[in-house]
Specification:
By secondary structure, the chain is an alpha+beta fold. The protein is built from twelve helices and 14 strands. A four-stranded mixed sheet has the order 3-14-12-13. The chain has a two-stranded antiparallel sheet with strand order 1-2. Helix 4 crosses helix 12, helix 6 packs across helix 7 and helix 8 packs across helix 10. It is elongated and about 100 Å long. The two termini are about 20 Å apart.
Length: about 500
C-alpha cells in the first residue's frame, strides 16, 4: 500500500484484511527489494473466463487497534496495489475527463463529514470489490486467452444476515448469486468502534477486449486531457534552452576563439597593458587549486560516474530495453551501471589529480572508490533504520544490505583501481591556455559579484525553464495520483 501523502509504504497484510493461511512473498530482483515492491499471495480466487457472483471472502471483528489503523490509512489516502498476470490494478474515476484511463491502486476507504451532527468525520471501509478482468483472444498470435486489463470497482457495503455467522453456511442477503452490487448511502460499512464486525466480499467479471496484448500498458502510461499544456511546456523549455545555448555559443565564438591563440603567444608589455576586465585572469584559469586538489579530483571522478550512469540508463529507456512490466528493472539498472562505471570514475579522478600535480595517488584512488558511496550509503542506512522502525515494506533486509556492500567493495572498488591505474599511466591532460608562473592578485569583489548573488541571478532562467515541465514529469511518474482525492 502506498500514499501520495506519505513516503512510507506498508504491507497489505499490515491491515486486518482477509489473509490466506499460508502466504508467500517474493521479489524477483534487487530493485524490487529496495523499493519494497514485494508480491504476496492473496486469498482471492480468479479462474480464467469464469464470472463469479458475490462471494463472502471472510469475516473480521476489528479490535480497537485495528480501528485506529484503518482510520489512519484512510486519512492518509493509502491505496491498495494488486497484481494480476503482472498487470497492476487500476480504477476509473467517475468524473475523469480522460475517459478510458486507469489510475493505479484503489483506496482503502473514504472519510466524510456529511450527515455528521457533531462535526466529526465518519470513516467508511471498502469491504467489497468488483474485479473486472479484460482479455483478448487472437488465434493467429497466441492459442488461448491473454489478460489485457485489470480493474477494480470498490464498494462500501454493510452486509446483513440472520443468526450467527458460519463460514460457507450462513446466507448473506446482501451478497449472493442474485445480488447486483450498487453504491448506496443507506448501507455503508462504517469503521466504528472496537468489536465492529466486517464481512469482506468480492465478485469477478470477465470482459472480452479488442486491445492487443502488446499494448495493454497504454491505459496506464498514455497522456491525459492536458496533453496540449504538456506539449506547450516541452516546446517552451526547449526554446529557452536553445536560446540560452545560442547566446553562450555566440559569446564563446566571438570573444574567446581568437583570444585563445593570442594568449598562447608571447605578449609584449604594451599588449598586456591593453587587456582589461576578465581577460586579465586568462593566465590563471587552469591554475591548480591551492587547497584540496584531491577533493576536486575525487568529486570530478564521482560526478562523471553518475553522469555516465544517467546517460546509459536514459539510452536504455529510450530504446525500450526497460519495460514498465519489469518491476524494479530501472533501479536495478541504475545500481549495476553505477557499479560498472567505477573504472570511469577512477580514470577521470586520476587524470584530474595528475593535472593538479598531485603525487599521493593511492589516497586519491581510495577516496574515489569510498567517499561518495560511503556518504550515500550512510544516508541510506539511516533512512532504512527510520522506515524499519515505522514498519514500512521499503526497509531492506540484512541480506539485501550485504548484497549492496558486496557490489560496492567487490565490483565497484576494483574497477576504480583499474581505471585509476590507466589514468595515472596516461599523459597529463593538455589545456588550451597556458598558465602564468606567478598568480595574479584578485581584488576584493563588489557586492553584486558575490557568489550568492551570482547563484541566485544565474538560476532564474534555468528555474523558469524547468519549473513547469518538472510538474508534468513528476505527475507522469506518479501517474497523476496526486489528484485522486476527488475520485470516490
Amino acid at each position: 500500500m502506498s500514499s501520495t501523502k506519505s513516503p512510507l509504504q506498508y504491507n497489505y497484510y499490515d491491515l486486518p484484511f482477509c489473509k490466506r493461511p499460508k502466504t508467500r512473498s517474493k521479489a524477483d530482483n534487487l530493485g524490487e527489494r529496495l523499493t519494497g515492491d514485494v508480491l504476496t499471495n492473496s486469498p482471492y480466487e480468479v479462474s480464467i473466463k469464469e464470472d463469479t457472483s458475490c462471494k463472502v471472502l471472510c469475516r473480521k471483528v476489528h479490535r480497537k487497534s485495528d480501528i485506529h489503523l484503518l482510520k489512519e490509512v484512510i486519512d492518509q489516502e493509502y491505496r491498495v496495489h494488486w497484481m494480476l498476470d503482472n498487470l497492476p490494478v487500476g480504477i476509473k474515476l467517475a468524473n475523469s475527463l480522460a475517459d478510458g484511463l486507469l489510475y493505479r491502486g484503489f483506496p482503502v476507504g473514504v472519510a466524510s463529514d456529511e450527515g455528521s451532527t457533531d462535526g466529526k468525520k465518519k470513516y467508511y471501509l471498502y469491504n467489497h470489490v468488483r474485479i473486472i478482468v479484460r482479455y483478448t483472444e487472437d488465434e493467429a498470435e497466441y492459442h488461448g486467452a491473454r489478460i489485457v486489463g485489470f480493474e477494480v470497482v470498490p464498494f462500501s457495503v454493510h452486509h446483513s444476515y440472520e443468526g450467527t455467522y458460519e463460514k460457507d453456511k450462513t446466507s448473506v442477503s446482501s451478497c449472493n448469486a442474485e445480488t447486483v452490487m450498487k453504491h448506496s448511502v443507506d448501507s455503508l460499512q462504517e469503521v466504528g468502534t472496537s468489536g465492529t464486525e466486517v464481512l469482506y466480499s468480492y465478485e469477478v467479471k470477465w470482459e472480452r477486449s479488442e486491445a492487443a496484448w502488446t499494448n495493454r500498458w497504454d491505459v496506464y502510461i498514455r497522456g491525459v486531457a492536458d496533453d496540449d499544456i504538456h506539449y506547450f511546456s516541452i516546446v517552451n523549455s526547449l526554446m529557452i534552452v536553445l536560446f540560452l545555448s545560442g547566446v553562450l555559443a555566440m559569446i564563446m565564438l566571438r570573444t574567446l576563439h581568437r583570444d585563445i591563440s593570442t594568449y598562447n603567444e608571447i605578449q609584449t608589455l604594451e599588449e598586456a597593458q591593453e587587456e582589461s576586465g576578465w581577460k586579465l585572469v586568462h593566465g590563471d584559469v587552469f591554475r591548480p587549486p591551492s587547497t584540496s586538489p584531491m577533493l576536486l579530483s575525487v568529486l570530478a571522478g564521482s560526478g562523471l560516474q553518475v553522469l555516465g550512469m544517467t546517460i546509459v540508463t536514459m539510452g536504455c529507456a529510450l530504446f525500450g530495453l526497460m519495460s514498465p512490466s519489469q518491476r524494479g528493472s530501472l533501479l536495478t539498472t541504475l545500481l549495476l551501471l553505477f557499479v560498472f562505471m567505477g573504472s570511469l570514475a577512477g580514470n577521470a579522478s586520476a587524470k584530474v589529480y595528475k593535472l593538479c600535480g598531485g603525487k599521493d595517488w593511492k589516497q586519491n584512488t581510495l577516496l574515489t572508490a569510498l567517499l561518495y558511496p560511503t556518504m550515500m550509503g550512510s544516508l541510506f542506512v539511516i533512512c532504512n533504520v527510520v522506515v524499519a522502525s515505522e514498519g514500512s515494506t521499503t526497509a531492506i533486509s540484512l541480506n539485501t544490505l550485504l548484497a549492496l556492500l558486496l557490489l560496492w567493495l567487490g565490483v565497484s572498488t576494483p574497477l576504480v583501481l583499474i581505471g585509476a591505474y590507466f589514468g595515472f599511466k596516461a599523459d597529463v591532460m593538455s589545456v588550451p591556455v597556458r598558465t602564468n608562473q606567478i598568480a595574479r592578485h584578485i581584488p576584493d569583489p563588489v557586492w553584486y559579484t558575490h557568489p550568492l548573488f551570482a547563484i541566485a541571478l544565474g538560476g532564474v532562467l534555468p528555474f523558469g525553464a524547468v519549473c513547469i515541465e518538472l510538474f508534468f514529469i513528476m505527475s507522469a511518474l506518479w501517474l497523476h495520483q496526486v489528484c485522486l482525492y476527488v475520485c470516490m
